[in-house]
Amino acid sequence: MEEACGVFGIYAPGVEVASLVFDGIFALQHRGQESAGIAVSDNVSITVVKDLGLVTRVFDKNTLQSLSGCIGLGHVRYSTAGKKDWMSAQPAYRSAGEVGFALGHNGNLTNVEELASLANMLPGVFTSDSDIVAELISQRINFLQSQQVPDTKDSFESNDTTCVPEENDKNNLLLAALFDILPRTQGAFSFGLIDANQLIAIRDPNGFRPLCLGKLPSGNNSPTSYAIASESPALDIVGADFIREIQPGEVLVIDEAGLRSYFPFPKEQIKPSLCLFEFVYFARPDAVLCGSEVHATRLRMGMHLAMQAPADADLVIGVPDSGVPAAEGFAMQSGIPYGQGLVKNRYIGRTFITPNQKARTDAVRRKLNPLKENVKGKRLVVVDDSIVRGTTIRQIVSILRDVGATEVHLRVSSPPFKWPCFYGIDTPSREELLAAKYTEEEMMDILDVDSISYLSLESLFAAVNVGRNGFCDACLTGNYPTKIPVTL
């Protein structure tokens, strides 16, 4: 599976923030490896640097020194919508009269054609759904500026909301434009935006993708500084204390007046639906989601899996990296020794980056190598986080058998992945999803394993340990929380 993106923003008066933004998006590199970008405001103008490649390739010391300012926004991208080129790299920048702004997006919009029509953008003109949103905001700002006395009242009170701007925001053109545009957007979006003087964080009414707030320590008589991030480890790396997660449907404004929250969406749209696969696969193990560290949740997944599907074996191993905590939990619960069976080459990116089946197959062997003495002659429990096409695990089983594993019992720490995602995970079509086409018995033959078992949905929710409400499990159940753009 392929993630959407990572967003990091910072508001730190009197501080040169470029290096902090670099550290923030470096901590989020796992969420997107196609492109990286940083936008910085010096309270007058915004400078943007972005390019294709990893964070460390796009930015060096000289580049960071050229980015001067105290408000910053960073982005790492994997394209789930739009092209894979420089124009699609983010943050996206627009200049609308006297207002310039930069936007970073994690997620995927489901009403792109409707929004493109609203922006009068023809097919092929826009590069991504993020580009469309930036254009709509720019057009609205231009309209408001064209009025002799800009009337932001209609924007703040659009769509039957009762969201009234505070005194500091009555002439906030960017915020007024957002209040008009946001209720028209559908799907998944965690946005970060900056203009000359403010940082804004936005989470869609379902809260599909994570976004959190942190506070940086401030010295005597220095203004308070804040940061936003897709995951809490990005806050840790810049020395910010985690405050809370941005709420679904929240628009958080950060400027010299402090923090202000608005909820411009109709109340009936607020339906918390955090992606369950943030716990299973996407988030870093040291990330905090719903008040719990992800690593502990993955341990519990493995423990539930051992209770649900025990196996006679000599050794439990995990598929690096996200399968390892669940393997540890399986071993703890089952009493079977835990050990390492696969060594990962950490200088190779995730195998989903590769463009076709043969390339993905070759990439697995370049990426993972067996510990022969640990594996030879052993009955193995192999724990992986999920099965999508089956390419990776099929190659792993082949590698383990080639070096002498006598049995391979596959345990998967999530339910069968049967439905495509439209909210920011670039999954294959349903026809390519292995579990959508085959029974577990058929998959045993396809993958050449002695047994296979998935964690049940009930056990997954028990491991997450915060109840069943407030999550999206559409990829596992086919129950989509919003209207989707295709008929399945």
Q: How would you summarize the topology of this molecule?
A:
Elements (H helix, E strand, L loop, with lengths): L4 E7 L6 H10 L7 E7 L4 E7 L2 H4 L2 H5 L5 E7 L14 E5 L2 E11 L2 H7 L10 H18 L6 H4 L16 H9 L5 E8 L4 E5 L8 E5 L8 E5 L2 H6 L3 E5 L5 E5 L2 E5 L11 E2 L1 H6 L5 E2 L2 E2 H15 L6 E4 L5 H11 L7 E3 L12 H11 E3 L1 H4 L3 E6 L6 H12 L4 E6 L21 H4 L2 H8 L3 E4 L2 H8 L6 E2 L1 H4 L11
Parallel strand pairs: 14-23, 17-20, 20-21, 21-22
Antiparallel strand pairs: 1-4, 1-10, 2-3, 2-4, 5-6, 6-7, 7-8, 8-12, 9-10, 9-11, 12-13, 15-16, 18-19
Helix pairs in contact: 4-5, 5-7, 10-11, 10-17, 12-14
Written account of the structure:
By secondary structure, this protein is of the alpha+beta class. The chain folds into 2 domains: 5-272, Glutamine Phosphoribosylpyrophosphate, subunit 1, domain 1 (4-Layer Sandwich), CATH 3.60.20; 292-477, Rossmann fold. The protein has a 7-stranded antiparallel beta sheet. It has a 6-stranded antiparallel beta sheet with strand order 5-6-7-8-12-13. The longest helix is centred in the N-terminal third of the chain and has 18 residues, at 129-146. It is elongated and about 80 Å long. Residues 351-355 have low confidence and may be disordered.
CATH architectural category of the largest domain: 4-Layer Sandwich
**End-to-end CA span:** 19 Å
Bin the strand percentage: 15-25%
Helicity level, as a percent range?
25-40%
**Extended strand count:** 23
Evaluate the radius of gyration: 23 Å
Number of helices, counting only DSSP H or I runs of 4 residues or more: 18
The top-level CATH class of the largest domain is: Alpha Beta
The third-level CATH topology of the largest domain is Glutamine Phosphoribosylpyrophosphate, subunit 1, domain 1
Class derived from helix and strand content: alpha+beta
Low-confidence stretches: 351-355
Total domain units = 2
Mean pLDDT: 91
Strand order of the largest sheet: 3-2-4-1-10-9-11
In the CATH hierarchy, what is the superfamily of the largest domain? Aminohydrolase, N-terminal nucleophile (Ntn) domain
Shape descriptor: elongated
